[in-house]
């Protein structure tokens, strides 16, 4: 038995498993294209996750290549529908090298109104001193996007925990969490600026050594490794 809310109110209706199964959509390998739009018109708030889209069969390859090259030449994306996990989703197909990438999109009701969060932010007067100091820090720490620098500290800690348990080693207790303190922004900026100024110029901007990967990835990646069929 499941409970569903009525239009965001505090009222609920009970829905049985059989009733939900009756409205579930059958997963297919077919992508239905509805419209072609400029990519720049899609707000990032609607982006969920990317999928690699691959053709299926000779006919699929022909249609795949035509659509890929057409939207590439027109600098557009194809808005399409496909069924995954018994639910219909909207995806934006765009050309990517020899293939197509499908970006799963949110429905409008899944996107919160930013006013609910931003309206209470106070309008403050930013001093030139603060801007100059912040700009100095940004310039000192500027670089280029390199995802190879990303480190999943939780994954590494989890694998370390499993290794210790497997070897029968003692598991140290976690250090007590520090209470959140209010930090003066200018003091924090000045401290950061001081730390940066002590770094030799030859070392600034050099990437840190990558930590050794110690954990296996799950088979289903949440990202561009997910696959969908094109027909």
Keywords summarizing the entry:
Ku70, Chain: A, Domain 2, single chain, alpha+beta, disordered C terminus, 231 residues, two-stranded antiparallel ribbon
Strand order of the largest sheet: 3-5-6-7-4-8
The tally of strands reads: 8
Mean residue pLDDT: 78
Integer-rounded radius of gyration: 25 Å
What is the CATH topology assignment of the domain at 15-143 and 218-231? Ku70, Chain: A, Domain 2
The termini sit apart by 37 Å
Low-confidence region ranges = 207-231
Q: Can you summarize this structure?
A:
The chain has a domain at 15-143 and 218-231: Ku70, Chain: A, Domain 2 (Beta Barrel), CATH 2.40.290.
Can you characterise this structure?
- The protein is α+β, with helices and mostly antiparallel strands.
- The protein has a domain at 15-143 and 218-231: Ku70, Chain: A, Domain 2 (Beta Barrel).
- It has six helices and eight strands; from the N terminus they run ββαββαβββααααβ.
- α4 packs parallel to α6 (185-197).
- The chain starts with a strand and ends with a strand.
- The model is unreliable at 207-231 (pLDDT under 50).
């Amino acid at each position: 038995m499941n409970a569903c809310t009525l239009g965001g109110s505090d009222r609920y209706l009970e829905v049985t498993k059989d009733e939900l199964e009756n409205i579930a959509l059958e997963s297919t390998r077919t992508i239905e294209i509805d419209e072609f739009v400029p990519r720049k018109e899609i707000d990032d708030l609607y982006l969920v996750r990317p999928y690699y889209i691959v053709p299926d069969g000779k006919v699929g390859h022909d249609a795949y290549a035509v659509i890929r090259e057409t939207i590439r030449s027109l600098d557009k994306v194809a808005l399409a529908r496909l069924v995954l996990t018994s639910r219909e989703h909207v995806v934006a197909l765009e050309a990517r090298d020899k293939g197509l990438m499908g970006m799963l999109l949110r429905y409008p009701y899944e996107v919160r109104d930013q006013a609910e969060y931003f309206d209470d932010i106070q309008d403050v007067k930013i001093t030139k001193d603060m801007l100059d100091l912040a700009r100095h820090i940004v310039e000192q720490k500027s670089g280029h996007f390199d995802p190879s620098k990303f480190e999943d500290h939780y994954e590494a800690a989890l694998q370390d925990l499993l290794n210790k348990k497997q070897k029968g080693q003692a598991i140290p207790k976690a250090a007590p969490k520090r209470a959140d303190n209010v930090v003066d922004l200018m003091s924090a900026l000045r401290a950061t600026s001081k730390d940066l100024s002590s770094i030799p110029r030859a070392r600034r901007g050099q990437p840190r050594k990558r930590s050794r990967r110690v954990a296996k990835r799950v088979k289903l990646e949440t990202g561009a490794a997910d696959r969908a069929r094109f027909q």
